[in-house]
Amino acid sequence: FLPILAAGRMDSDSGVWRGRFAIAEVAHGRSLGSADVSQSFETGQGEARITASDLVFDPEGLQPGDVLPMAQSLAARASGRASFEGQASWSSSGVASQGVLRVGGISFSSPAGRVTGLRTETRFTSLAPMTTEAGQTLTADRLEWLITLGDLKAAYAVAPTFVQIESAGAS
Length: 171
Known about the structure:
Largest sheet: 11 strands, antiparallel
Oligomer: single chain
Shape: elongated
Radius of gyration: 18 Å
Helix content: under 10%
Order of helices and strands: EEEEEEEEEEE
């Protein structure tokens, strides 16, 4: 992920810090969502619940690459909606995170051509580094390439340094 801006406050009560932060992307300060954070004084254990329930992509506004570096070269002039819910927890034994990205029909220009109607519900088993289990799926209505392809489907997995395409098809 690219750096984000977080603005809010934390209050302490009964040995626990709690707070809510508004989250925005750095380049233009566009709102992304919020994070609810808690941290125990005594144990050092903490948690952040991240909600970006209404990401609206617009060719003249927010773009996937404003949030996720790998999207900068893959998706330009995007339009459509997405949402993200995630959680990160930490303690003396380490850090764990997970999340779900829901994309409901985004259209964008890609290196392979114009993609229309991309949909996915991707479940991340870790956010840092970004990883998923095998068998994540996405569909798209069209890809305008050398020829127009329709009804695209792919299964994939995200690893820390690459995306593995398990299967792909189109008509």
